[in-house]
Amino acid sequence: MASARDDRGTEPSGPHGFTNDFDDFSESWFRIPRGPMPPQMAYEIVHEEAMLDGNARLNLATFVGTWMDEHANRLYAETFDKNMIDKDEYPKTAEIETRCWRILADLWHAPDPESTIGTSTIGSSEAAMLAGLALMRRWRARRREAGLPTDRPNLVMSAAVQVCWEKFCNYWDIEARLVPVSLAHPTFDGHDLASYVDENTIGVVAIMGVTYTGAYEPVADIARALDRIQEDTGLDVPVHVDGASGAMVAPFIQPEIAWDFQVDRVVSINTSGHKYGLVYPGLGWVVWRTRDHLPDDMIFSVSYLGGDMPTLALNFSRPGAQVLLQYYLFLRLGFEGYRAVHQHTQDVALFTSGEIARMGPFELVSDGGDIPVFAWRLKDGHTDNWTLYNLSDKLRARGWQVPAYPLPEDMQDVTVQRIVVRRGRRVAARDFLKDFRACVEYLDGLSGPIPVEREGSGFHH
């Protein structure tokens, strides 16, 4: 006679048959259990732990994609065992990787996509590291050829730069020259750039989609400032574009902006496939203007179908499935599909930011008109009873994750909140705004200040 099983698939035990070993599991979390356990039991432990995470669809802080369609999910399940680095074992995946970065080279107006080079990475941070290394090694090679010292390289970028660039400078002993933002210059725009650039500058980073506010830095203006510096000093400084978000948005809904390889000084671009490329994490891309802009000593050759294929990456083992998902989306959506998705997402961002702007307490810092990301601050003098940190906590109690944090150097006394809209849905926006208004109404109704429980933000870019 078959024994009864509970709805979790484990054998019931206990005096009445209503409990099982899973209910009594109390092993240390920091030692491997002495013996094995049934797979259903191990699954339930991990499953129920993961349930305590926030709902990814209500996480308005992250840029990372949280949804793909059923065909993509099926493809993912069929290919998650592929190791991207094993190009000889998975030659078609390797070929599809090449198709993807060449598609991006064409999308970003490379002079000759057939003669450039690129690669997939774990994310745009790894892609940025590779681009930064290429800048450093090309600068070092030029200096050595001229018989000049190479011991004091620097990289110029905005104080609002994503933390991966500060990591890059730290890891490879490069001086990070951070240009402050201000009310007069809320983004890095080439103003006073001559004060930061010298003969040891390996390059300048321009950001298409600042993580703090979603704003584009004007790449063409930065390049023109560098043109003037070259005219005055002879220094020829290249630009790398960190397009982690914007490089997969601007080509589709803001084609009039000159930011990519159409700007002659731009030598490399990175992006995140898992942000507005619409793929699950983690996937990044980096493409160089021409193969000459990537030093040969960064390229390794692997056997591929009886020949050689170039490869470059910091990670040796990494998933190939996301590369296939990116190619699936290029085929599935095409240019017009990406344009439609991003335009709708931006429309939702503009709608939501407009509704918040019409509320009395807030003024917008950005409205979602660049990438579909916007930020706001409390109006001066509105209240002494609550802050945006309190509003963030109230929203989190309703499931919404909306971070509050200070702006970067020289504007750190300004606290903002930010929303990232991903594959925007007006229904979700209306639900959020209903909860948002209720939270603000509660806070505005307080008769005195909320006690300070914590200072600052736990949110990091």
TrEMBL record:
Name the segments for region: Disordered.
Answer: 1-22
Keyword Lyase (UniProt): yes
Q: Which cofactor does it need?
A: pyridoxal 5'-phosphate
Q: Which SUPFAM superfamilies match?
A: PLP-dependent transferases
- Per UniProt, what is one GO molecular function of this protein? glutamate decarboxylase activity
- Which Enzyme Commission number(s) are listed? 4.1.1.15
Catalytic activity field: L-glutamate + H(+) = 4-aminobutanoate + CO2
Q: Where is the composition biased (Basic and acidic residues)?
A: 1-10
Q: Which Pfam families match?
A: Pyridoxal_deC
What are the record keywords, sorted?
Decarboxylase, Lyase, Pyridoxal phosphate
The question of whether Lyase is a record keyword is answered with yes
The record's annotation in NCBIfam families points to: Glu-decarb-GAD (TIGR01788)
Q: Which family does it belong to?
A: Belongs to the group II decarboxylase family.
Protein's UniProt name: Glutamate decarboxylase
Q: Which species is listed as the source? A: Demequina litoralis
